[in-house]
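does this look right to u?? adenosine-5'-triphosphate version
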Amino acid sequence: MGAPPVISTAGLTKHYGNVHALTDLTVDVGPGVTGLVGANGAGKSTLIKILLGLIEPTGGRAQVLGHDIDAASQEIRRLVGYMPEHDCLPPDVSASDFVVHMARMSGLGHAAARERAADVLRHVGLDEERYRPMGGYSTGMKQRAKLAQALAHDPRLVFLDEPTNGLDPAARNDMLRLVGRIGSEFGIAVLVTSHLLGELEQVSDHVIVLDGGRLLRSSATGDFLRRTGGLLVEVVGTETERDRLGEALAQRGLVCRPRGTMVAIDPPAPELATEGVAHDLIRDVAADLGLGLMRLEPDRGHLEDVFLEGGAHV
Amino acid sequence: MSESTTPGTGRSGVIHDLGYRRYDGPREGTGAIARTLFLTGLRHAYGLERSGKSKVMPFLLLGMSLLPAAIIVGVVVLTGLRSLPVTYAGYTSQTQLLVSLFAAAQAPVLFSRDLRHRSIVLYAARPLSSAAFGFVRWLSMSVALLAFMVIPTLLMFVGALLAGLDKSDQLSDLYKAVVLQVFLAALVAGITGLVSSVSLRRGFAVVGSVMVLIVLTGVVTAVQNIAQSQGSDSVSVGAGLFSPWSLYSGLGNAWDAGTRVPVSVDGAWVPAYVLVLLLVAAGCVLGLVARFRKVGSR
Ligand SMILES: Nc1ncnc2c1ncn2[C@@H]1O[C@H](COP(=O)(O)OP(=O)(O)OP(=O)(O)O)[C@@H](O)[C@H]1O
Ligand SMILES: [Mg+2]
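got this back:
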């Protein structure tokens, strides 16, 4: 610790008439990967655009890489990269040409831009297809090209707005792994948004949760897991089996709820919270009932849970 | 537990060349970035560095506007005429349909594409603001248009010198033509730029520009001619304020640059023509800059 924050906001507010996109947001973002989580309309994109100087806040202050967003937004835009959430690629240009051009628009000379474009396109995994017009790309390839242009000028911080949007599970994992590498291996600070907490906790060092434009929570990813602390169990069979297990576990003092085909177990009471005790208990109960255990894992924490929990705190 | 690698190892330890490389080289200021953007826009206006198909329209139109000039040069050189059959400024006016079509067809390339595909947001997130982006686009379009008019003009000028026509006469004519072309280019780039930045579908943008540059000019010319034949000279001159080409011809007439108008423009009409031209051009530039600023923040 002790390093100055990469981003720091104080009372940041953005109201569109009656729509409160962001309200009194005070939060710090450090190096590494920071997840910005919130439901649709929570204010994630609004925050990023304010930090980039694309829209003006209604109130409050913010600094990015030590520069004030009011006074030095041009300097900020020189040092950061931005991957927007929506489509932003001209279809008749190849990724290679486009990334070179975008690197030049960030101030790199011709030769440097070419070299950087080749480098980042390789890092994001666009190979032969980089020479084809982007109009023919799959969603996964488009997301990679969008990411490449954000990295083209070797920024010190990137804003990635829903980089996994529209990706299938395999492509999603690839993208998340890449985001993790950008933060650790590349040494570029990352602010990445998603509406799924479970997705970001895999790669984030820190998670910020927004709800209706307000800060719900900001903490290290580890704290999130500890606070969530619940378990998910799935047994072979139908809802009948699921409910039999749930009832039996409830009798043994665990607080359970059905969630889809699974039983979600709240963080166990202190006497059961010791490492492994709850696990053993669940295994025993399932064995007693003659139920086949398909899955027993930590509850990766659903956003709704954070909201419920957070709501209680506020 | 998110990562097993310790942060920072990729930066220092160069184990193999596949790792991420930082860029420590120079970074240009906004002036140099704007110049790069300007030159790219200028090339794109002629379809250069774009698909082969994109080059067809601009170069076809340029070729067509050069053809009469080449014929004029041939005739003057071969027959030994003592003067060009048309002035430089007059030539631009007579090929106005081609100039207008070039502007209408190419403005969407510079002003619609980045808004339609939303790549403007990627520019807006870079040092040059989206407002500056719009302004630089207008500069590119203005210079592309100016080149479109100047190239045939220069061809005729070179031909005139080859034919041994009086150099100082030709130079003074050329000077007037180029000054008028600069003003016209700024105005037409502003109009077609604004139209194209508002109507993002290429078809609508082209039609919109054609309406202003060709249809409106036709209407104004008709009104001017009718008014003149009815003896209402001031109505005829006043109507000339309402289209880019009648402004151009009117100013060319007032300056004795050899453009044709139904009723000569003189007296207080001259500053009025200059003022209207500058105000409309400036208004269009402000309008399109505001448009780019707005879309860039969405
Ligand atoms: N230009 C605008 N005018 C009016 N309201 C706006 C504008 N831009 C955003 N909003 C509103 O502000 C709120 C926050 O929007 P924002 O795009 O920041 O949410 P988000 O967290 O990025 O959501 P999503 O997950 O859907 O991308 C929303 O209610 C949205 O409708
Ligand atoms: Mg968003």
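Chain B has one domain: 28-296. idk if thats expected tbh
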